[in-house]
């Protein structure tokens, strides 16, 4: 993915809403540029629910989860979840898919219910043990 550039012209806010202030340092220190990111570029924006559009086989993965590479090591994902202040809950389809026709065994007819109103979907994906659903909710301090 190409790196996005935020452009400021004549010290005006960028088209996205990011703001910039410049200080020459008044001869006491180096030039300083202060950037106030817009909501889209803010690292502190809260991760949360989005519209779910499952693919033709019934799979879906939250589009705002960062890529953690191709490895099988769950540690980076777990650290990111903790950093986001999320609690996870998930389960395999198990017996819920037993009565489905073979051609639908992927996941299209499985519609797992949310564990509660505060939970949002992280993904419905395939594993070695079959379809798996994962939900998240914000941890309250």
UniProtKB/TrEMBL annotation:
Q: Which organism is it from?
A: Pseudomonas canadensis
The protein, known as = DUF551 domain-containing protein
